[in-house]
Each structure stands twice: as C-alpha cells, then as structure tokens.
Amino acid sequence: MAEYDLAVRGGVVATGFGTTRCDIGIKGGRIVALAERITDAESILDAGGLLVLPGGVDTHCHIEEPARGGYTSAQEGAPPPEVTVQEESFVSASTSAFAGGTTSVVCFVPQWKGEGLLPRLADYEQRAARGMLDYSFHQIIADPFPGVLEEEVPQIVAKGIRSLKVFLTYEPLHLSDEQYLRVLIAARRHGCLVTVHCENYAAINWRTEALLKAGLTAPKYHAWSRPPVVEREATHRAIALAELVDQPIQVFHVSCAEAAEEIARAQHRGVKVWGETCPQYLALTAEDMDRSSPEHGGFAGAAFMCSPSPRSREEQAKVWEMIRRGTLDVVSSDHCGFSMGKPGAGKQASGRDAAFRDIPNGIPGLAARLPILFSEGVSKGRIGLDEFVRLTASNPARLMGLPGKGAIAVGADADLALWDPAKKVVLTNALMQHAIDYTPYEGLEVTGWPVATLRRGAVVMRDGVVQAEPGTGRFLPRPPYAYIRPHGVLANGFDAAPPL
Ligand code: URP
Ligand code: ZN
Ligand code: ZN
Fold first, then answer.
1. Does the beta carbon of 361 sit less than 6 angstroms from any atom of ligand 1?
2. Parallel, antiparallel, or unpaired for β 51-54 and 445-455?
3. What is the number of the ligand closest to the CA of 70?
4. Which is nearest to 483 in space by CA: 274, 178, 177, 206?
5. In a mutational test of the pocket of ligand 1, which residue from 336, 338, 436 has the highest number of ligand atoms less than 8 Å from its CB?
6. Which one has a higher pLDDT value, 253 or 83?
7. Does ligand 1 lie within 6 Å of residue 255's CB atom?
8. From the CB of 65, is ligand 1 less than 6 Å away?
9. Per-residue model confidence (pLDDT) at position 74
10. Where residue 493 falls among pLDDT bands split at 50, 70, 90?
C-alpha cells in the first residue's frame, strides 16, 4: 500500500508566511507531509507552474436562509412576507464555492422575532448537511429575550456554534442599544464572538423617507440613503458598547475609511475588534446602481444593491489602504443571492417598480471572491501573496476558531486551491456556477484563476468541472476561544458583566 493517498507535486506552496516549492503528501483527508519530493502515493496531482493555496475560508455567506422578506430597509412595523430569500441551496452554493477555490464557509442560522433559536437551528442543520462544503454557523440574534440568551445560547455553544450575529439596521432584524448590550453580555458569559452589521437604523429610515417623499425611488438612491457617516456612527457605537462589556466583536462588511478608522482607533486602545471587508467594496461603486439595461430597464441597478452600499473609487483606494495596514484583516464574500429576473421573488420580491427601500439587499460573490481579490490585489500589486492567503483563508479560520482550516501545514485538512496566477478570465455568470441569474461582476477581467480545488484531499473541482457528492460537507464544531474570558475581572475594571 502506498504511503500517501495523494501527492500534490511541483507547485509553489503559499502558506501566508512565505512560499516554498515542495510536494504535499495527503492521507485520510489531511496533510501529512510537506517534502521536497513525494513519490509513494496512490495518485499524483501535478501542480507544476501553479500556486498551491489553502482552500478559501469564507466566514460570511448567506445560504438557503429562510427569512422574513429580504434584507431591506422596509417600513417599521410592516415586515415583508415570509420567504426563503436566498435562492441558493447548499448544493448550488457548494458548487459555486468549489468553482472559485473556496472549501469552507460560515453561514447564518436565522432567528425570527418572537421565536426561539432551536427549531430553526434544527431545520438549518438539515439544509446545510445536504451540501458539499465544510461549514459552521453564526447564530443570528434578532430577538434577545431572556430565554434565548440564558437558555438557548449555552445550548448552541455546546454544539460548537461560537459566534452570534446582530444587525443594527434592517426591519425587523435590528437591535436597540439595550438589546445589543444584552447580547454582548451573554456572548461574553458563554464564550462567543459577536459579529455586527453596523449601520444606523434611524438615520437610514429618516433619509429613506425624505428620498421617497421627493419621488427619488430608483436603486441608485439606496446609496444616498446610507452615506458613510451612517456606517461610521454605528461602528463607533458597536465598538464602544463592546469595549464597555469587554466583549470581542468583528465588524462585518466595512465599506469606507471612516468606519475602518473607528476600528483602527479601538485596536490601538487594545479593544478586541476585528474588521472584515468584501470584494464589492473593492470592485463596485455606487455608480453601478445607476445602470439601466434593455433587459431590466431602470431596475438594473438593483443587481448591485447591498448594505453598506458600494461607495466611490476614492473610497475603494482607502479600503485597500486599511487592508494593507492590517485594520481590515478578513475579506469575505457576504454572498447573498437574489436573482434579478424572477417576478415576485429575489430582487423583484416587491415588483419591478419597487422603491429602493423594498428591494432586497445582497449580492452573490462566493465564486468571485478569490479571483477578484487575487486579481485586484496581488496581480495589480496592491497586496502581496502572503496577505492574500491570510485575508482569504488563515485569518478567517483563526478568528472564527476553525482548527485545521486555512493552513497548509502537517495535520491540517487537505483543503487546497491550485491556482494559475497568470490565467486571464473574463467573469461571466456561467463561470460562477451558482443558482442566481446574474453576477454583479459580469465582464470584469481577472488575472489569476483556480484550476483545481481539493476538499479534505478529494479533488472536487478540476478545470471548472465540479464533482462532489451532495451530503459530504462536514459540520465544523468550534472549540472555545482563547481570547474570550467568559468570567472574571473585565479589562476596564468592572468585576463581572452585570446582568442588565
Ligand atoms: O446587503 C447585504 N449585505 N445583504 C446581506 C445581509 C447582510 O447585511 O449581511
Ligand atoms: Zn450585514
Ligand atoms: Zn451578510
């Protein structure tokens, strides 16, 4: 019997801390050897002329997420109807992820107001188990009543779900400051990271009302309804309250320098806050929402609507700078698939003439994440290869506590992307291999492309052909965080997190 199941030979291995030309020996789904030459293997995968990267770890993906309406600004007290807003299934999302070199994800278990966590978790566990990606969950907390925080959160933590997700905007998901504080305190007590969508709900509503009253309803006014100050204020508040409680948070989808600077300032004070950004803030602008098309007319801009809004070219340059400084240390996709062309569903849930307020926010990006970041970042000289690996794999795995993921090292899962750094590809929706009817990156030329993806040693994508059995993805239970101290004296001098 051969010593290894598979040897990946002749590639340049990028670890995030330098590159080395070596072979990789894989057995039982794990990396068991890194050596100059490995010959004794059942099969050989030639990586000559290619980079070998850790499989992408995308820790912010909305997949098959049943929700009440879309992620819209919708009117207070008038929540939209109940639908599964993401048209993507775990099977189609897995296919798309593998096509783009990503091998594991963290996605979102919903909570609907007035309900507990566990019934929806049971349903979501079943959905996720049908896919091929390895996965973990963030638990959305949309209604933090005592039974949820005191009884259910410890139960989900016992299952290895160690991050809670909260929204400071969106109807009906947004939390008040007091509710957010309660979540922070519960998270600290039970050892969870809190991830936060930072935008000011009241400010967005006020601007939205004014825009709609003036008859300014088109998709482009989405950006007008939520300028950077709205994000900066909520980021500041989210951090300040987390600092008060001494609870680590990750600020999701940072789109602008003003918000990133709030994070940088807090990091300098020693606050445990991390910042994530996404390709849409590096490759799209608010002007994209001003597009028209023969197919979708004036509605075409809806394809680019996400929150926070894409900004300007100048802002993109500042976000790159905050990446280079290390303030933003994770790049996720925030994949959130709503098709454009289905009347009564997806982006058209409220109809083709819907005002921007009622158009679901979110864009698909699972497959595009690595190619865009590699091309716009590494190929264009904005970041180095090490940074790319850390932003897309090592840092998200470390921050979320996913041992065995995001690393090319002996003992790690053999999750790999074999990458042609010189290949030029024009992005099309077909290449994304998702279930959504468009990609916001249609026509973008990228330099650098995945030619094979391995998940736990199995070749699941080669030359664009995805082959993986549904139901083979594994749940990734997460161990306790080293940087969360659930009990004891707080850094800011208080004795313990007081009950609110
Ligand atoms: O517009 C976005 N980002 N939609 C997805 C939900 C969220 O806010 O993360
Ligand atoms: Zn969000
Ligand atoms: Zn999101």
1. yes
2. unpaired
3. 1
4. 274
5. 336
6. 253
7. no
8. no
9. 67
10. very low
Query: 263: Cβ below 6 Å to ligand 1?
Result: no
Mean pLDDT is lowest, of 296-300, 346-350, 460-464, for 346-350
75/66 Cα distance (integer angstroms): 20
DSSP-derived secondary structure letter, 390: I
Average the pLDDT over 458-465 and give the result. Answer: 98
Q: Is 440 in the pocket of ligand 1 (CB under 6 A)?
A: no
Query: Over 60: is that where the pLDDT of 81 sits?
Result: no
| 413 within some domain | no
CA of 422 to the centre of ligand 1 (A): 32
Q: Which ligand is nearest to the CA of 222?
A: 1
Alpha helices, H only, 84-146: 90-99, 118-128, 146
Closest-CA residue, ligand 1 atom 2, reads 362
Q: Is the CB of 350 under 6 A from ligand 1?
A: no
pTM of the model: 0.96
- Give pLDDT, residue 73: 75
Which of 222, 307, 356, 366 best tests ligand 1's pocket when mutated (most atoms within 8 Å of CB)?
307
Q: Residues lining ligand 3 (ion), CB within 5 A? A: 334
Does the pLDDT at position 41 exceed 70? yes
Tell me if 333 sits within 8 A of 368, measured CB to CB. Answer: yes
Q: Which residues pair with 275 in a beta bridge?
A: 251, 328
| Cβ of residue 71 lying under 6 Å from some atom of ligand 1 | yes
Are 133 and 473 contacting, i.e. CB atoms less than 8 angstroms apart? yes
Residue bearing the CA closest to ligand 1, atom 4: 362
**Residue 500: C-alpha distances to residues 136, 316, 487 (Å):** 30, 40, 16
Q: Tally the residues of the chain.
A: 500
If one counts the domains in the chain, the total is 1
pLDDT at 486 over 70: no
CA of 344 to the centre of ligand 2 (A): 23
| Residue 362, ligand 1, Cβ within 6 A | yes
- Ligand 1 nearest atom to the CA of residue 60, by list position: 9
Residues 300 and 292 sit within 8 Å (Cβ to Cβ):
yes
Q: Tell me what the mean pLDDT of segment 164-172 comes to.
A: 94
Mean pLDDT over residues 111-135, rounded?
A: 96
Domain presence at residue 126: yes
Write the CB contacts of 363 (distance below 8 Å, at least 6 apart in sequence).
280, 303, 304, 305, 306, 334, 335, 336, 337, 338, 440
Task: Please determine, for residue 156, whether its predicted confidence score (pLDDT) is greater than 80.
Answer: yes
Residue 83 has pLDDT above 70, yes or no: no
Cβ of 449 closer than 6 Å to ligand 1, yes or no, is: no
Report yes or no on 477 lying in a domain.
no
**Secondary structure element (H or E) that encloses residue 420, with its range:** strand 416-426
User: Do the domain assignments include residue 409?
Assistant: no
Find the CATH number of the domain harbouring 217: 3.20.20.140
Domain that holds residue 306: 56-378
384 is written with which tokens?
């180095």
